[in-house]
Amino acid sequence: MTMAMTASPVQRKPELLGQTVVIIGGSAGIGLETARRAAAEGAKLILTGRNPESLQRVAKELDALSTASFDATDSALLEQFFRALPSPVDHVMVTAGRPYYGRLIDMDFARMPHALDEHLMLFVNVARSAVQKVRPGGSLVFMGGTGSRRPAIGLGVASTVTIAMPALTANLALEIAPIRVNLIAAGFVDTPLSASLLGDDLEKRRNQLRTNLPIRRVVQPEDVSALAVHLMINTALTGATYDIDGGQQFVAA
């Protein structure tokens, strides 16, 4: 006589249950996918974005606690947003901002500070505001990149910001401890932002990456969101930079 044994699926408790996650830039791309994954882990969501229509659509989909539509690089509006947050929140992710491409010698000098503010000063301003709102042991998750680590014509600002972000992250992790601070450095990710930057060359770029990347596929927002949520959950991680580019920086891709 034989007895058949069937495996039952493992049940686990959602790992962000009862926690509040703020996503600055949460209405599209990586921010949106992180919001979806955080919600699946039981988190309550507070979402921001520049496009109020997209933001309201996402908020309805994910039953967000609240939303705010504003330009996160405006330090006064950012500070106002944090002041209005309930206390405490548990995690803040920042995906706002877009890369600047252009030759340094041709760049409008008045534009340069804003190009830097979109990333470096945004991170500093978020950290300064978060000190009063994020619970001890909670986290800040910043988005950076790997693609501009190699110097190239037209990448002067992007390269400078890319190299500075890990140092800024490590220093902020010390300064605002025990709040944790981590940086995700992504290569090409197949998002609406990437589509807007590449235009008609988007499919050509996808095919190039599928051929050249060691993983033989294009990195998706869902890949990055999995890492972002892990950085929120794992309370031993702080002050570090985590590359997620499918091996792009190691090959001619």
Descriptive key words:
seven-stranded parallel beta sheet; Rossmann fold; 8 helices; alpha/beta; 253 residues
Provide a compact summary of the structure.
By secondary structure, the chain is an alpha/beta fold. The protein has helices at 29-40, 52-62, 75-84, 112-130, 156-175, 192-198, 202-212, 221-233, and strands at residues 20-24, 44-49, 66-69, 89-94, 134-145, 180-186, 241-244.
Task: List strands and helices in order, with pairings.
Layout (H helix, E strand, L loop, with lengths): L19 E5 L4 H12 L3 E6 L2 H11 L3 E4 L5 H10 L4 E6 L17 H19 L3 E12 L10 H20 L4 E7 L5 H7 L3 H11 L8 H13 L7 E4 L9
Parallel strand pairs: 1-2, 1-4, 2-3, 4-5, 5-6, 6-7
Architecture overview:
The protein has one domain: Rossmann fold, CATH 3.40.50. 41% of the residues lie in helices and 17% in strands. It has eight helices and seven strands; from the N terminus they run E-H-E-H-E-H-E-H-E-H-E-H-H-H-E. A seven-stranded parallel sheet has the order 3-2-1-4-5-6-7, sandwiched between helices. Strand 4, helix 4 and strand 5 form a beta-alpha-beta unit. The longest helix has 20 residues.
